Amino acid sequence: MPRALGLTRVAVVEDHLLFAESLEVALTLEGHDVHRIEVPVQTVVPAGWLLTALLRVRPRVVLLDLDLGSAGPGTRFIEPLVRSRAAVVVVTGDTREAVWGECLRRGARAVLEKTASLNTILATIRLIGDGRPVMSREERERLMLVYHQEKQELQDVRARLARLTPREREVLHCLMEGTTVREIARASFVSEATVRTQVKSILAKLEVCSQLAAVGLAHRVQTRLVSH
């Protein structure tokens, strides 16, 4: 038997239509007052629009995806939603522990994988409705520590990248695109020896021993910035 309607007002913020509809149906059958906030797939929407739509609903619980397509990263909405006294449960396909730790640091009550069963999601909402913790303090602290460690490491990498000259940044960007030293030299009308000297300087400033490691560092920072 479904529970009494209006047990908990839940907002679902998810740009994957099928997943959002599945959550809406399951939560409604449980008796929750469900409001699905549709995120346009192709039309770029301002972050303020989505936040305003959420605050207008006045949800008790928000099931929030992190990859919201045209609306950008979902992490930006956690803190304002928490300030509105909504309990934020992040439901994401991103399995990186540092990302989970960041969500918790911003105030999310829990982070669940999208592969989690509907029963797990429903149980999480019940715990919140009952005013009970949904994650152990030890697990929250562990994930937040992972986030802080990665944040410190990324700051260190950015500081090393800042040492590069504009030309060295150009060369590193070419390496990230898979361009060879010979191709860089040909496109820049300089000798291969000159490009190799520039690559050697890049490796020294980034404190790595190979082009692959240098590219890996740059991609790591770039990916983190794009994601959040």
TrEMBL record:
Record keywords: DNA-binding, Phosphoprotein, Transcription, Transcription regulation
Pfam families according to UniProt: GerE (PF00196), Response_reg (PF00072)
InterPro entries: CheY-like_superfamily, Sig_transdc_resp-reg_C-effctor, Sig_transdc_resp-reg_receiver, Tscrpt_reg_LuxR_C, WH-like_DNA-bd_sf
Keyword match Cell inner membrane: no
TM helices/strands, residue ranges: none
Domain Response regulatory: 9-129
One GO MF term: DNA binding
Domain HTH luxR-type: 157-222
GO biological process, alphabetically ordered: phosphorelay signal transduction system; regulation of DNA-templated transcription
4-aspartylphosphate carried by residues: 65
Protein name as annotated: Transcriptional regulatory protein DegU
Species for this entry: Nocardioides dokdonensis FR1436
